[in-house]
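seq:
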Amino acid sequence: MNKPTHFNEEQGSAAKDRNFVTALSRGLELLRAFGAGEEYLGNAELSSRTGIPRPTVSRLTYTLKLLGYLHHNEYLEKYRLSAGVLALGYRYLSSMGIRDIARPHMQHLADATDCAIALGTADRQTMTYIEVCQGNGPLVMRLETGSRIPMATTAIGRAWLCGIPTERREQLMDEMRQRDPDNWPAIEQSIQKSLDDYARYGFCLSEGDWEREVSAVAMPLILEEGAEVMAINCGGSSLRLSHRVLVENLGPRLQELVEQIKGSLAPPHA
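struct:
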């Protein structure tokens, strides 16, 4: 029988406490099993590392996936940490390195446009900024890494919705409708407009939609052939970012940025 990798005497004592929740402990142990620099682990590897029986691991990973703490790659049939872990204070990006790769490209665009550039990922019905680069221009809002903003009413959130499969998007939109039925007609209209903009331009627009003083363009960052979808935006003061500037300048530049990031992520040719 394999010993749990992270088991110690303190945990053994805690397990004897009648207030100790074993199922919760096991779920957290699975999250701890992911080491820095590791992307994907399968149920067999998780079972070996934690000492938790594989059938139990399968149920736990399924539950953690539904709750947004694990991401499942169907092609590899393995899991990695997802954005929900970041919301709890875990180092979500320790297994990816996407932030280090994207940062120099983002900062270059921020300096060139005097705008704020943010890379975000979805956590249920919100977006979490995992990297932010600031320009020197007059910005109305200076959100930082770790900031959480609404998905349905922001450019970056709606861009992420544009990048995910239709079935998943419709499911999320149904959840949004149930959560906020009074405002749903306006929210649905704004999401549909973003879908239309994305089909027309290749990016989404926000002209004072979330905050009146802020305008932005955003687009999805689709990685691993769709297994992972993030989003990136470029925004600043509405006073200087007209519709024409968004469509003819910032939008195309953001598209170039996404291609640069993807190019940096691509493995070198043999």
